[in-house]
Amino acid sequence: MATKLNEKIAEFEKDGLIASAIPQADVFSVSLAATGDVIKRGTVLSKGDDGTMSVMASGGVANCILADDVDATEAVTGVAYRTGHFATQKLIVADGYTLSAEDKEALRDVGILLSDVMEY
Fold first, then answer.
1. Element containing residue 32 per DSSP (H, E)
2. pTM of this prediction?
């Protein structure tokens, strides 16, 4: 069996979610509540009383950021960032909701920094 050492196996596209490598982005697994839809990478999650995470909306407390797209047609386990430095304008929340200063502070309290990043 021959192997080509210069063979392209994957391609990475920069999406601009991570603003800086400092502090280092750390991930952990999360239980996601069923939404009946796909939850996109960069979605801010809040933690419910039962420990499951859901898309950040009014009344929730921001806790982490989803690391990969997840098909949440039923309750599922996903991967989220528990720390890191992210671009504020790339974050996703529930329709009709905007991150408040309290949400941003809650994220900072758990080790997630946010910055407004200029795209070029």
1. strand 26-32
2. 0.86
